[in-house]
Amino acid sequence: MSVHTSQRLESTDLEDTGSNSAEIDEIFALLSNSRRRAALRILVDHGPLDFGDLVDMVAEIEYGRPIEDISGNERHTIYVSMQQTHLGRLEENDIVKRDRDTGTVELGPNANMMTEWISKIDGGDSIGSKLKRALKI
């Protein structure tokens, strides 16, 4: 897959992060998964959310259908992966914070840097645009 010149990450983009190579590798590893990117974009656009609502919105994007048209098994697959893998990875890196008592998920202190990279990776589309396209609204 080729990257358009305007979308290429310039070497100065990497230098601007002030990160070393290992940190850059971790950023790309964290953003390599579309569910993690979707969850971050949703939290940027909507603010803190109940974990179940976040899962529903990720499912709508992934399957391109409203939550009412997504099977319980399809939703469960996303719920489990978010619960067991994706949120944990984001929490470990202070990108999201989850209050286990209330079930709320919100952006953490390192989220700003990640959302800048997401815009470069996903072309800057807002999650609202992605949801509308996915749901053909």
Distance between the termini: 29 Å
Strand order of the largest sheet: 1-3-2
Count of spatially separate domains = 1
CATH topology, which one? Arc Repressor Mutant, subunit A
> Which regions contain 5 or more consecutive residues with pLDDT less than 50?
1-14
By CATH, the architecture is named Orthogonal Bundle
Description:
It comes from Natrialba taiwanensis DSM 12281. Pfam families: DUF7344. InterPro entries: DUF7344 (IPR055768), WH-like_DNA-bd_sf (IPR036388), WH_DNA-bd_sf (IPR036390). There is one protein chain. The protein is mainly alpha-helical. 62% of the residues lie in helices and 7% in strands. The protein has a single domain, classed as Arc Repressor Mutant, subunit A (Orthogonal Bundle). It has helices at residues 11-16, 21-31, 34-46, 51-63, 72-92, 111-122, 127-135, and strands at 49-50, 96-99, 104-107. It has a three-stranded antiparallel beta sheet. A hairpin with a 4-residue loop joins β2 (96-99) and β3. It is globular, with a radius of gyration of 15 Å. Mean pLDDT is 80; it is low at 1-14.
Key features of this structure:
DUF7344, WH_DNA-bd_sf, WH-like_DNA-bd_sf, 7 helices, disordered N terminus, Arc Repressor Mutant, subunit A, about 140 residues, mainly alpha, 3-stranded antiparallel sheet
Reconstruct the topology from this structure.
Layout: H1 11-16, H2 21-31, H3 34-46, E1 49-50, H4 51-63, H5 72-92, E2 96-99, E3 104-107, H6 111-122, H7 127-135
Antiparallel strand pairs: 1-3, 2-3
Helix pairs in contact: 3-4, 3-6, 4-5, 4-7
